[in-house]
Amino acid sequence: MSVRQAMLALLEQGPMYGYQLRAEFEDRTGSTWPLNVGQVYTTLSRLERDGLVEAAGTDEEGHALYRLTEQGRTELSAWFSTPVRRTQPPRDELAIKLALAVTITGVDVPAVIQAQRSATLRALQDYTRLKQGSREEGPPALAWSLVLDSLVFAAEAEIRWLDHCEARLARSAREHAASGAATGQGPAAGRHARPVTGGERR
Amino acid sequence: MTAVLDIRDLTRVHGAGAARVVALRGVSLTVAAGELVAVMGPSGSGKSTLLTIAGGLDSPTSGTVSVEGTDLGSLSRSALSALRRRSVGYVFQDFNLVPALTAAENVALPRELDGERPSRARAAAVAALEEVGIADLADRFPDDMSGGQQQRVAIARAVVGQRRLVLADEPTGALDTETGEQVLALLRGRCDAGTGGVLVTHEARHAAWADRVVFLRDGVVVDETRSDAAEVLLDARKR
Predict the structure, then answer these.
(1) Is the separation of the CB atoms in B51 and B39 below 8 Å?
(2) What CATH number does residue B155 fall under?
(3) Are the Cβ atoms of B225 and A133 closer than 8 angstroms?
(4) What is the ipTM score, two decimals?
(5) Is A3-81 a CATH 3.10.580.10 domain?
(6) pLDDT band at B171 (very low <50, low <70, confident <90, very high)
(7) What is the dihedral of CA A104, A108, A110, A111, to 10 degrees?
(8) Please, which residues have CB within 8 angstroms of residue B173's CB and are 6 or more apart in sequence?
(9) Residue B166's beta-bridge partner residues?
(10) Do B44 and A126 touch (CB under 8 A)?
């Protein structure tokens, strides 16, 4: 996660101190990506070293304030205008798990898929309830609802992929069974997926 | 909690001999007042058959269906129709509004069929339209409304009067994501107000509005999920 750019973006609103930056960040993102205050101060001192932020005195309660420099502003606008890189897909444990499950004997792949689908759907129910519960107005509330939408759509995509895997496995099992029967191998070739049996049509 | 819908060991077989297809086998499902249950499954899993039987539009081969404590199998044909009109509301993917009737007339129709005075049926219809946020469209015809507005009329028709069971079959199928979401919010709101609801869908994002999600595969319930009150993501915003 880009803590650096997030801090620069928040400081665009005006000078702030560490705790305040964390609060502003979490006001927009909940604790989806928890940020500890140590991380905020480390980031601020690096940004200061790189000339992107500078000390801006203290507020009446003695908190050390930081503000954006011209260079920081340039870096921030470069961040907004550059697409996030998606060339290297992040390592996805679920995809790896299924890729291995289909190649290993004795794994009940449909059960693996259903267990994940249930768990992801439960997360999706939670996000949906959080969205309903959020009745506030204003830009931070809007930001938070967009973050929730991002989680909702990602979970939905995962479930669609699982549905696809299930259908694909069932087809593969049917094909194996058919070719197995033709070559006299028997139905054991389809052991990885439970073949879909009759009664599917209405 | 009162069970608005109680389905026990339901089996439905279509056809016979070589053409025999088992659409549902041994499905049980209970929906309490105030509860929204989603039924998910691929096409052919039996989810629409389940909904049709739950609403008394089709009969089970074996098993029982009770709506608000009344066993549908024990009713005469006319008593079943009356119960359907009074207790059960349907929302379909393609809205199923009568094109020659205005929004208010569409919503009032089941009540008038039930023998209610037209003026009272109209008042109830307008109240139901108000609840779904389109009282101002009461005198419009379906063709002059957007898909989202038509589905709101359909929901008003499903919940008008004292109905305590709403059955929705892919109610957001023809709508864009934002409008679909509003329709689900409406359905959710009705259930929060005490109606029992069954939502059949193949979309996880829609099923997620439910209190409980039942997974159907080849006519069998294979899994069920409740949403846990994991409000952990919200903690930081409440601090």
Answers:
(1) yes
(2) 3.40.50.300
(3) no
(4) 0.75
(5) no
(6) confident
(7) -130
(8) B93, B94
(9) B89, B197
(10) no
